Amino acid sequence: MVIRQLEYLVALAREKHFARAAEACSVSQPALSTALRQLEDELQVPIVERGHRFQGFTREGACVLDWAKKILADRDGLAQELAMLQQGLAGRLRIGAVPSALPIVSLITSPFAQSHPAVTVSVLSQTSIQIEAGLENFEIDVGVTYLDNEPLRHVRSLPLYQEDYILLMPADQAAASRRTIRWVEAAELPLCLLTPTMQNRRIIDGIFRSVGCSPHAAVETDSIINLCSHVRSGPWSSVMPRALLHLFGVPAGTRALRLVEPEATRTVGLVMADRDPPSPLARGLFDTARTLNLDAELQGTPLQPPSS
User: Is residue 301 within 8 Å of 245, Cβ to Cβ?
Assistant: First the structure.
């Protein structure tokens, strides 16, 4: 068995197509197919379901694939560890972040990058479910997600800040001159919200249910920026994390009201796979995050534009 065969196997699982997997590995399709047959011969089990097109993996193949991902991740971790001993952290740090946390990711990656200039940082917008799967499948190194809402399995976590909520609404609405608004009042407004596939939306729906409301979202999107755009250009209001204002401030033509009764919060934090030894890059980001006080920084974000 050679590492290259395992790389071909993982590429095939990712691409679900022999030709695309071969292209991704910079080899010919016959070379990839031959290498996988050699792997089957060595392990004495069928790995790939045979057919004119890729049809999936056998039960044994799925087991081999899981081990292949782990072996390749351990290979990468070893290379990172050795590089760190010689010249400091290097490589690519892959971060998956829920959309509601994307505005704050740079508060962690910026000091991390300053301390580790040889590391390339890649940030992906993902759902909490995708983050959990990505950690399990060695597709990302770290997640930024909710820690206390839906259960997380097989991860190590580090709290970053408490997410609280505002209602962003057009400045010409009657309630826009206020500082606060109750959740039951917000439920009566025309709303645009994230899609139900996003944990932030499920949190918001749960808070509304806790006060006996079930509002209808006239617009749904998986983009925080798109929510802001709809509030600026239409009659809609939106429930958003206060952390959003740290990046954008209060968008022109809108007002931000603190949502009360209840004053709900959720914990957002870092997660990495619960494995030993941990990924050096993930461990490095955790170490950087421990030196930060994001709660203090985010709570200082004003809810009104400077001219108000």
Answer: yes
